[in-house]
Amino acid sequence: MATMTEAPWRLQPAPGETQHDLQQRRDRAYFAWQLADTEVFWRRLSGAAIDFAGARVLELGCGHGALSADAAAKGAARVLGIDLDDQRIAFAQQSVPAADPDRAHVMAFRCVDIAAIEGEACFDIVLCKDTFEHITDLPGVVAEVHRLLRPGGLFVIGTSPLYYSPFGDHGRYLGSRIPWLGALMPEPLLFRLASARHRTTISSAADVGLNKMTPARFRGLFAPHEWNVRMLRYNAGDKPLLRVLSVLRRLRVLEPLCTVSIYAVLVRR
After folding, report:
1. pTM higher than 0.85 for the full model?
2. Based on the number of CB atoms within 10 Å of its own CB, is 208 exposed (0-12), middle (13-18) or buried (19 or more)?
3. What is the CATH classification number for the domain harbouring 256?
4. What would you give as a GO molecular function for this chain, any one (predicted)?
């Protein structure tokens, strides 16, 4: 299994290994890594009491399908994982049901935008892990989730790291972990340096797949007449830095800079 010091996407080719075989090996390692990471996801949502027994589940931004597989293992009656990355969906379609044949009939994976899913109130639970900070049209996606959830259905979100937090740029600009890079460096300079590194024009955070999520923007997405908040937790985890940042984020001016993660369970009214 890949470790945090051996990120799956950084695995190097073995002697004589083709690019296709390397990608397959990276995909398998990434799936195993994400499957282990589901335990962290649920631990940060501890106390949310998510019951999957017999539930119809949609995973938004399912990637390689690890969280979808976990939902099926927890008793979901039907799980649909969707993502816009066709390579990851191809892996999920081929490998995830094959790894759990007893539940293969429960799981399906599609490379499709959420707006293309037909129907209303056809899911009991929508999951979204480590995807919310990348979605460009957040109000539109939240509206689609509201359409697809039955009244009383749950929207379960874990999003991290947020853009203005210490490493919220995901290393996507300069490829290195520079604290508060997106917050402190003037954007014209940042985009110019990133453009040179990637050898393409980068003129916005969206060009590197980031949406500049802040806690205030997150809260503003969920109108009280449409959603009830069952759980909302910031900086979930046990790292000492998170404890320090949790104290500092109480100051409104520091909240965007000191909020690393948001874990939430919203109930569709």
Report:
1. yes
2. middle
3. 3.40.50.150
4. S-adenosylmethionine-dependent methyltransferase activity
